[in-house]
Each structure stands twice: as structure tokens, then as C-alpha cells.
Amino acid sequence: MNATEAAKKYLIALALARIALCVMGCEKGRHISRLAHYRSATWVSVFRVALLRLASLVIVVLGIIAGGIAAAAPPAPMPFGPINGANVTVPATMSWSAVTDPSGASISGYNWKVSPASGMTPVVFMDSTGGTTTQDTLSGLVPGTYFWQVQAANSAGQQGAWSPVQTFNVTGAGPGTPGTPVLGPTRGYSTFHPSESVHFSWSAVTGAPTYRLEVSNDPNFPLGTVAPGVLTFWNDNIRTTTDGFVHHPSLGEGTFFARVRHRLGFRGGIRSLPSNVIQYTVFYNNPIGPAPVLLSPINGETLTLPVTLTWAHVPNPQAMGYAWEVAKDATFSTIEASNNQYTEPRALMQSLTPGPKFWRVLSQHGLSSPTTNANTAWSTTGRFTIGSAPPVPVSIALEGVDAPQVVYSGVRRNVSVQLSAAVPTGGATVALSSSNPGLAPVPPTITLPGGFALASFEIPIGQVTLATPVTLSATLNDALRLRPVHRDAANAQQRPPPIGAGDRDWRRHHDWICGPGGVRLCPCRGRRCEPLDELCVGRRPLGGHHSRGCPWHLVSDPD
Length: 559
Known about the structure:
Elements: H1 3-26, H2 28-34, H3 41-67, E1 79-81, E2 86-90, E3 92-96, E4 107-115, E5 125-130, E6 135-138, E7 144-154, E8 166-173, E9 191-192, E10 197-201, E11 210-216, E12 232-238, E13 242-246, E14 254-264, E15 270-271, E16 278-282, E17 293-296, E18 301-303, E19 307-312, E20 322-327, E21 335-342, E22 346-349, E23 355-369, E24 372-375, E25 382-386, E26 393-398, E27 406-408, E28 412-419, E29 428-434, E30 445-448, E31 454-460, E32 470-476, E33 479-485, E34 498-500, H4 504-508, E35 513-514, E36 520-521
Helix pairs in contact: 1-3
């Protein structure tokens, strides 16, 4: 029966119901007059109630007739294989009969599920196919007895009845079963907090395109409709042997179980047998791990900017989980620099005033209550001193460009100037210059306010047709620092021409190299070079020695 016929019959039923009500109302007076000889109001009332009930019955009956016209759910398919009681190895083929919806609606798909219990609880495998596909692949089940059912769903969104329960026995893994990975313990420890990240790693399986990580608070990893408070979730199509997630408070507290599978193919694919199962807990009151361990500087060294603070990762480091402070006093009452969202175990100090400094770090690990962070204790206190010598330029460099600094023409870039210490209270002016102001123009000067050792400005990069070297310079307190921005034209690649710092080919043509931030280093052979106290400009001390005992000689000076 199509939709048009159903609509017509529904309208007819509605009209009949209205007629029934009208007859009840129109005949009301006549019925009462015929009953007048009973001379009893009670009988009149009884007859009126009977009429009302009759009209209601007509409406209900006609409503049922009309309702039967609506699209019916599809019938249950008939399971074909595995046949009832069969012994199979996985992967195995599940198959069933095609069905036709009595309303004429198309069959949009089939759902099937597998359980180790005849009552179909818990469900341990479930999948679906398209409406024209009446078979699928079962995989990933360990040996044992299982039960399964299949149902159809139509294009109207209705799901039909489940088929009768069929049983089969898995005797083992057959050909085509992928290898099984081995899941290691969770990273760091097994006692986590809500909002803390949990990380997993497992062994690689040869030929594994993807993996599937499964997590549940029930060791059976139930699927489908589960009891309140039970949940199973997973991450599919993992292309590495590690994965993790932040345990959101909505997932609740408790003991959780995890396992991983190798999977061949996409969508359903063929799953390996599950790995070993590990377990971990998530509670607000779980213990908090140890404080970070500081690495350097920690012993009061006298340094110049920039200074890199480093510490060892905690057992389970969190994204943006580190907080650090640098203070002028050991009690941390005068904080000079701080940050509470660091991911890597290092922090670059680019503007600190001269004098003693004290620093410490803690690590954040989710929540210890719905409103309180689960923070480690502060680390021990590290010490260093920023020297009191007049600040001088340490580097002038393009921001966000790795060495060798090569950029393409026609863009805009920020340039930063780093000093060895913060400038005095009154501020300071740094002189700038460019070896090619038409290609990379810089302002003649920049001013740093008191207490700062870092400044930045933006420059346009002009157009070139060949790789072109440019050198930027910064001068303060009669100290000059150069940033050679160079690329050897003979070795330039044939693509939009860049300008930037010298690459290895260019460096081989000159008997000196640029260190971090553009400071020249003498080319010590076989050991690390110390920065030159002054630039090697206009001299050829062949066979000479640097004041720190580093042999060097200058064969050319591109500046």
C-alpha cells in the first residue's frame, strides 16, 4: 500500500469519526424524548453515556484502521551462516536472507550482533551492512561459544525485529587473521585523575596498516545497549603504535580496562585477536606524581641572555602542563617571569634584569577535585645570575625561521634583536642596518624600554630572480652583531628564489661559520667552538690563535 492510498484511508476514517460525533449530537434530543415514558433521569443519563462510548469506539476502531496503513517495520531476516551449532575459525562469514518491507519502503541496511550469552547480553561484536549486502565478516573473537542475531532497517528509519538467536563455536584463528599486538602499561603510572591525559603504547605488527584502541570500565568491553554507568569507547584507524586521550570528567571515576587490535582494511575490516588487557584507575584522590627535576642552570652561574631553563620530564607529562616561575628572591615574592602552560621541559628567558635569579617548576595533572588542579609540588629551586656588564647585541634574526635562515621573496617577516642583558631603566636605542636595503629594508634604529632585552620589528622581503645574500646588523654600546642572510647562487634550487642564511654549501666556501643567533664561531676542528670576542674583519691571522686557544684562520670575508 503506497502513501497516497494510506492518506486517503486516513481521511475517510477521520470523516466517519466526525459523522459519528454529529449523529450523537443531532439525535441527542430524539433519544431523550423516546425514553421519556421511563420517567427516570437515570436511564437517560445511562443512554447518553452509552452513545458517547459508542462514538469513542468508532473513533478508536477507525484510528486503528488508519494506523495500520502507516509503514510497517521490516520483518526479521533468516540467519544462514554459520549454521546453528557450527564450529568455525575466524575470520568467518556471517550471512542472512534479504527481506522486503511490507510498506514498500526500501531496506537501507542490516545490523547484526554477537554475544557470549544466549540472552544477547553483553554484546561483544556488532556491525552493519548496506541494504543490498546480506553478509559480513566476523573476526577478532577468542575461542568460545557465541550467539548472534540480525535485523533489517528501512529507509523510514524503522528497525525490524531481531532474527531468532543462532549459536556457533569459535575454535581458533584461521588463515587471514592479523598478528596480535602486545599492549604495554600506561605511561608513567596507572593512577590518573579526571582531566589527565592517559597514554598507551604497544608492539608493532608486521603489515599492520591501522590499530584500534578499546577502553571500557567493564572487562567484557560490552557494546550496544549497556547497563547505566557502563561505557565502552575506542579510537580507530591509529597509524602509529601509540595513542592517548584526556580522561574527561564525564567518563566518570573508577577502574578502566584497555586493549588494542591490529586491523586490516577500513570500515569493518578484519580484526586481530585482542591484545592483553591492562587496567588503570581514574579518581580525584589518586596520588600525584613527583615534582619536576631541574637540570640547568641550578648552581648560581653568571650568564648573559638568552638563558634556557631546562628540567627533566615528569613520568606522565601533560600538554601545556608545566608551570614555572623566575623570581628576584629565594622566597618568590618578587616574580619577574612566569608561565603556566608549557609543554616542553624548557623555557627561553629573553628579557631579565641583571642580578641573582631563582626559578622553579611544577607539573599539572588534571583535577584533584571538580574545582581543584592536581598539581605536583614545586621543584627544588635553581639559581643563576644575569651579569651586570652593559648590554650588547647577541643576535639579529628572522623569527620563526630555522637555520640556515632561507626565505622566499615577496613576503613579510618579523626580525628580533636579542641583547645580552636588559637595558637600563631609561631604555636604549639600537642601531640597525642592512647590506641590501632595497631588498630587506630595516629601520635605522629601534628603542627598547628599560628592563627589556628583546625587541622585534617587521620588514618586507623584496623580489629577486636569483638567490641573494643579505646581512642585517645591530649595534649597541659599540658592539656589532651580524646575521649573514645568505644562499650560494651556484647551489640555489630552481624554484621561486629565496633569500636567507647560508647553507652548508656556502659555509664550505668560507673558513668560518655562524653560531646560534648569528655569532661567528671559529672553525675548531673536532670540538665545539667558543664565540669570538670580536669579529674577524679585515685581518688574515693565518695560523693565529683565538684568545681562548681556538685555532682559526680567515680566508675570506663576505661582509
